[in-house]
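Notes on consecutive records. When two proteins share a document, each keeps its own sequence and its own token line. Never mix them. Below: protein one.
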Amino acid sequence: MNCAASENAFTPVDAKPRSWIASLSLDLQLRNAVTRVISSRHTGPLRVQRPFYPEAEDCCHVYLLHPPGGMAIGDELTVSASVGESASALVTTPSAGKVYGTKGATGAQRQNIHIDIAENGCLEWLPQETIIFNSANAQLKTRVNLHKDANYFGWEIVRLGRAASGEIFKEGYCQQSLEIFCDGKPVLIERNRVNASSEMQTQMWGLQNKNTFATLVATCVPGRELLDQLCETLDAFDPEAGDCWGLSQKKNVLIARYLGNDVALCRKGFELIWQQVRPSLNGKNAVPPRIWKT
């Protein structure tokens, strides 16, 4: 994997690019009433720290580490997580993920997430945001397989361009796929593609020239009263900013969305939702990962 940190890599576009293929396979199982990382197999620069147990209950907190900090053209990351029967785990990252750009390149950067949760298991997938640099070609795929009475809480936060440095996402694309299945039957399937400078990015029916969009999914039913309270709180965060929040309940799946220009505000809102609905998800109060405070 090329760890170039600038927008434009030095490799000529017509040359065969170097690429790093990295993968990580996690197996989390309940052992003596505590969820343990039974195995962690990796190739390339992708691994986990030792598990943490900041909660009084059995939940295992795991931090995914990717030392290069981002993906260059041609790179591919694959993470597979298997959660055993009645096991409970929370996975997060210590920093934002980055998808670097190479002007004029036609290759892509690929991230594949495969999650399998056994009966009565629970996984909370809470990574920090992914920043798509200008001229990057990002392909982000997440597939979640649930078994009987299994639960999942996950979010995906995408930032187009680097607003702090004045960079606008005007070349490249970001393609996303989110699939959730329960016992082989589709629960939620979403696919979208944002081509830079396209109508999808600029029009009112699309991203409205906002640079941050995010989706949160939870297999729980927190109740109408709580959803109404959350809507009121989220809308009151910064009413002048023009950010858009949405909450909807589709049978036993809660879906929350954000569209705006403030990653920190998005994170704040998603963490609030997580804290409020977690008891409905797995009967536990929210305990934020320690890494979020550093």
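Protein two starts on the next line and is unrelated to protein one.
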Amino acid sequence: MDVMSNTIDTSPSDQLYASAQSAVERFVFDERVAAVFPDMIRRSVPGYATVLGMLGVIAEQFAQPDSRVYDLGCSLGAATAAMRARVRVPVSGFVAVDNAPAMVERARAAFASIPGPPVEVLCADVRQVPIARASVVVLNYTLQFIPPDARPGLLQRICAGQLPGGVLVLSEKIAGVDAAEDRRLVELHHAFKRANGYSDLEISQKRAALEQVLIPETLAVHRQRLRAAGYAAVDVWFQCCNFAALLARV
């Protein structure tokens, strides 16, 4: 499924880790990643297309008139596009935020060429963006890249800026409840990547690049933190291997 959901995916194949590297650099969302991102995420995240489609369904159900819909950590704008295509009530705005200029530039260009309500695409740290009159907020594989000690404050700010009846959708790579479960989930994830054409070298080098950049946590930790942030109900509505999505309701 294309990352903008209603255009044909013509992005190059992800070959970023296909050649052996003497020293694997930390993963960053630069122009090289932006260029292959649709292919990368499709082949790397189990259930990504399902989650993306359901974001539109969830937004259609929970978006309120005269409210804002936020996509925090929007990358190329996939979640925003999915929601924008299905929301039927007159919201006051769609706000997509990412701190990677390469992603923001491409997202702005894409939304400018796709008919529909205007989208405000901001190049900013999601921790600094004001959240106000929000009915739907999405953190689609974003929180995992935020330092753990900054995660509670971000979720508290989001909840405080949401309207009664609002929802937060949190999609994340998760850790197992113990070392054995974590190992089993990781093995399944690697098998998924192999089935999508990644070599063991690519899998190993990508994992090294993401160490200390993407920090997963257990579902229990996510549930507890969301409750502590002020959400009244937290439900897991999707899981495939070590990737899950939760719906938190104000």
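For the record: The CA atoms of residues 3 and 138 lie 15 Å apart.
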